[in-house]
Amino acid sequence: MADLPSDKVDEAKQVFECFDKKYEGKVDNFYIGDMLRSMGLYPTQAECEKRGQTKKAGEKTLKVEEFLPITYEDFMEGLKLFDKESNGMMSLAELTQVLVAMAEKLDPRIVEEILRSTETKDDAEGMFNYDIFVKALLKGPFPNEST
Questions:
Q1: Cα 61 from Cα 83, distance rounded (Å)
Q2: I want to staple 26 with a disulfide (CB 3.0 to 4.6 A). Which of 21, 61, 79, 108 is the partner?
Q3: Distance in angstroms (rounded) separating the CA atoms of residues 137 and 79
Q4: Where in this chain does the record put each EF-hand domain (predicted)?
Q5: In this predicted structure, what is the pLDDT of residue 139?
Q6: Same CATH topology for 6-66 and 72-139?
Q7: Where are the domains of the chain?
Q8: Where do the DSSP E strands lie in 36-126?
């Protein structure tokens, strides 16, 4: 799996085990979003469905090996949309705007805390390296949305 830190792999496996209600090494795809949120990630419902989440429980299951790649790779894929020059950089202002204005909005205070906790700062041109941001985000700790 692409560059997912070992502590996040361990965390993902622990989260997976918590949702493996029958101890069969499988989790109902209905819980993909809940598992990602348990890891401090904030995917939209549409993103969860794109990753295989089903609308009803009991329709499909996934194994831990199928769950692990969802985190890092999906973050990177989503942020590449904003990388206008395909150089690994995007506008920090644009990221902030997207996070507070998307369908499932984040409170601006949460966005500020995310950027602070990941030590994400823009350069002189207002850009930042989103690969470094995603890796820092996945290392945690991540702010709680209710703060």
A1: 34
A2: 61
A3: 13
A4: 7-42, 70-105
A5: 72
A6: yes
A7: 6-66, 72-139
A8: 61-62, 89-91
Measure Cα distances from 64 to 61, 71, 107 in Å. Answer: 10, 12, 31
Q: Does the predicted model carry a pTM greater than 0.90?
A: no
Are the CB atoms for 96 and 110 separated by under 8 Å? no
* Residue whose pair of structure tokens reads 């984040």 in the numeric block: 106
Does 126 score more than 60 pLDDT?
A: yes
Largest CA distance in the chain: 52
Higher pLDDT, 122 or 50: 122
Q: What is the Cα 25 distance to its own chain's centre? A: 22
pLDDT value, residue 68? 81
Reported as a single tens digit per residue, the pLDDT across 133-146 is: 988 877 765 544 44
